[in-house]
């Protein structure tokens, strides 16, 4: 009969690897705006993929619903340098929710003529519905521009 202690190192390694889900690069939101804001909000248009060369713009948490399933945000939709359509990319796991403002259009790719002009950022207000309440998950401002 083998000793139960013989398997302890393997269990420690497996437990460590299971808990090592890496969060994407970005800043964790301080969740200072957790009440539902007043006003009328439309759903933010969500994209399901974020191409590697896509510029991501800033967004701000305005509040959330009482059940934590709806996040109200202001997100970047473009600038005066190019034609854009504002979109939001949302990645959800059991540990975090990552959001990126991901405009699409002629100037929404790094290296393109007339790339983004952050000083002239245009924004929109909207909401994003989560599959599960935010709860204790981290809310991350996904930054694909960082290298």
List the topology elements.
Elements: H1 8-18, E1 26-28, E2 42-43, E3 46-47, E4 59-64, E5 70-78, E6 84-85, E7 88-92, E8 96-101, E9 104-105, E10 122-129, E11 138-142
Parallel strand pairs: 2-10, 3-7, 8-11
Antiparallel strand pairs: 1-11, 4-5, 5-10, 6-9, 7-8
What is this structure, in a nutshell?
The protein has 147 residues and is mainly beta.
Describe this structure in words.
The protein has 147 residues and is mainly beta. It is built from one helix and eleven strands. The chain has one helix at 8-18; strands at 26-28, 42-43, 46-47, 59-64, 70-78, 84-85, 88-92, 96-101, 104-105, 122-129, 138-142. The strands form three sheets. A five-stranded mixed β-sheet has the order 1-11-8-7-3, with no helix packed on it. The chain is globular and about 40 Å long. The N and C termini lie far apart (53 Å).
Task: Give me the strand/helix succession.
Answer: HEEEEEEEEEEE
Give the termini distance in whole angstroms.
Answer: 53 Å
Radius of gyration: 19 Å
What fraction of residues sit in β-strands? Answer: 25-35%
The count of helical stretches stands at: 1
Overall structural domain count: 1
Helix content: under 10%
The average pLDDT score comes to 77
Please state how the strands of the largest beta sheet are arranged side by side: 1-11-8-7-3
Shape: globular
E-strand count: 11
Flag low-confidence runs. 7-20, 109-113
Q: Largest beta sheet, briefly?
A: 5 strands, mixed
* Computed structural class: mainly beta
């Amino acid at each position: 009969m083998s000793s139960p202690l013989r398997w302890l190192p393997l269990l420690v390694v497996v437990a460590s690897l299971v808990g090592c889900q890496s969060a994407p690069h970005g800043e964790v939101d301080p969740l200072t705006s957790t009440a539902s804001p007043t006003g009328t909000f439309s759903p933010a248009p969500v994209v399901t993929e974020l191409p590697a060369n896509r510029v991501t713009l800033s967004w701000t948490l305005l509040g959330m619903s009482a059940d934590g399933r709806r996040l109200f945000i202001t997100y970047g939709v473009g600038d005066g340098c190019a034609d854009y359509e504002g979109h939001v990319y949302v990645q959800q796991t059991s540990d975090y929710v990552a959001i990126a403002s991901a405009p699409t259009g002629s100037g929404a790719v790094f290296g393109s003529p007339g790339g983004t002009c952050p000083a002239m950022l245009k924004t929109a207000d909207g909401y994003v519905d989560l599959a599960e309440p935010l709860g204790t998950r981290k809310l991350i401002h996904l930054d694909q521009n960082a290298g």
